[in-house]
Design the sequence.
């Protein structure tokens, strides 16, 4: 059966999935880019994001590769799609990822402001969903055509889907840094009461990796 | 120079250092005892807490051993000393640890309610400090006589000393469990702004270990 998954969702030791003050130059907020050191150096990340043959294999790479396997559609929060807030001024902004984004399938962007779908190179189409997370998930499941739906983030979007118990499985990576402020994954979220347990743990020199599974 | 240290302070993946509803049967709150699986199985813990020769060596044991090295005095929050709240009904409660507690030096217990010091077997004396964390630290430093002062916990006490930037070095262990509620170490605490950074990270199959150092 099609699953709803979150992967490679990285937080600091103190739980922040993004630093404060997101901008075009700081897509993950101030300090946020340090979070992903474990993923950036992997072979999979280098291949998918930069079309490069460099990068390392091993546990970090295994988790990165798994994050792309059998995914038929993505859901992103609007802040993960871009730094623009409020109504779309025009159709210029098409994501952080250039002309050929690393999704290669339908991507549903949660927003309060309607916008026409945007078809990119490489099979990625961005759709803008204004009627909530359940609607986005229904559309994503249809688009995924039996494959899984990945909730890509950011923090607020992951939290909304966890609160609704709509995520089946989630891979959380903890980077050995402190951010101190920004967007916290755990704050006020009783993941235990929501039925989530940590069912797997392993670690590498750059991150501790956890799998959360919903009962 | 004498340092102020915190050690083997264990939180769940979601940041809780104790579960909810502390009681005589649940000194660490409901679910809290799972936090310390990594420490309980170490040779040092078995020797210090149970006077037993069993237990394992390795990285977890090294961290446990370090937590007792060169400590001349302890500071504990009242909830770590016992489950009683409000005024002391009498002098019956003398901690969770039996007649010979594992401290073997002066232990300063933060409380709003005065009480006479209690001398235990093995060199431990519990003193009750009613005039705040700075006063407790001054007294502990004198008692430690050039050795270090360890802030033993619990969560609220660690947070108070972090907020006051009075902890020089802190070892945080993360257990691969979710508690969902209870006492959160990180909530609303901007450790980055307070000058703390994560300066060391290593991990074992039972815990991820981090050292925080104040700049």
Sequence:
């Amino acid at each position: 059966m099609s699953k709803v998954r979150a992967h490679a969702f990285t937080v600091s030791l103190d739980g922040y999935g993004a630093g404060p003050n997101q901008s075009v130059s700081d897509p993950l907020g101030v300090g946020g880019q340090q979070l992903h050191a474990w993923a950036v150096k992997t072979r999979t990340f280098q291949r998918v994001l930069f079309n490069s043959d460099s990068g390392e294999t091993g546990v970090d790479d295994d988790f990165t590769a798994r994050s792309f396997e059998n995914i038929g559609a993505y859901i992103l929060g609007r802040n993960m799609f871009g730094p623009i807030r409020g109504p779309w001024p025009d159709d210029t902004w098409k994501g952080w990822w250039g002309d050929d984004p690393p999704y290669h399938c339908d991507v549903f962007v949660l927003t309060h402001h309607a916008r026409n779908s945007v078809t990119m190179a490489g099979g990625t189409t961005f759709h803008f969903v204004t009627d909530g997370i359940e609607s986005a998930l229904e559309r994503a499941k249809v688009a995924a055509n039996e494959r899984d739906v990945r909730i890509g983030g950011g923090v607020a979007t992951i939290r909304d889907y966890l609160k609704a118990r709509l995520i089946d499985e989630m891979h959380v990576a903890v980077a050995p840094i402190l951010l101190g402020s920004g967007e916290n994954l755990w704050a006020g979220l009783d993941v235990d009461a929501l039925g989530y347990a940590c069912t797997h743990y392993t670690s590498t020199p750059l991150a501790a990796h956890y799998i959360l599974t919903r009962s």
Remarks:
- The first strand of chain A starts at residue 4 and ends at 12.
- Residues 7 and 68 of chain A are 9 Å apart (CA to CA).
- Chain A touches chain B at residues 13-15, 31, 172, 174, 176-181, 184, 186-187, 189-194, 196-198, 201, 203, 205, 208, 210, 212 (CB under 8 Å).
- The mean pLDDT of chain A is 95.
